[in-house]
Amino acid sequence: MITIDNYLDSHYIHRSNWLRAAVLGANDGIISISSLAIGVATAGTMRAPIILTTVAGLVAGALSMAAGEYVSVSSQTDIEKADIEREKKNLQKCPTKN
Predict the structure, then answer these.
(1) Are 8 and 14 in contact (CB under 8 A)?
(2) For residues 34-51, b (16+ Cβ closer than 10 Å) or e, as one string?
(3) What is the rounded CA–CA span in Å between residue 27 and residue 22?
(4) What per-residue string of b and e applies to 62-91 under the rule 16 or more CB within 10 Å gives b?
(5) How far apart are CA 13 and CA 85, in angstroms?
């Protein structure tokens, strides 16, 4: 029997969020880190500062993207859960007749 609790089990839309986040993160990371490395490389010819700056940029970018994605997904989940609860209450108050 299909209930509101197991309705999404047969749907795949809730599994696609990771792909969207991965594509966005990869695109953002490639552009920002490449730009950072090119900027430092134009300032000098030594390899160590370029590598250090690139690694520091990678770590900072990864932490920033992870925190931003966590907040984004958490907010969306909270909104959807609240909407489902509203729908449950409305269906209990006024059930449909089949």
Answers:
(1) yes
(2) eebbeebeeeeeeeeebe
(3) 8
(4) eeebeeebeeeeeeeeeeeeeeeeeeeeee
(5) 19
Average pLDDT of the chain, as a whole number: 81
First to last CA, the chain: 16
Report CA dihedral (53, 56, 58, 64) to the nearest 10 degrees: -130
Tell me the per-residue pLDDT of 65-91, one tens digit each, with 9 for 90 and over.
888 888 988 898 899 899 989 888 888
C-alpha to C-alpha distance for 60 and 69, rounded to whole angstroms: 14
| CB contact set of 17 (below 8 Å; sequence gap of 6+) | 73
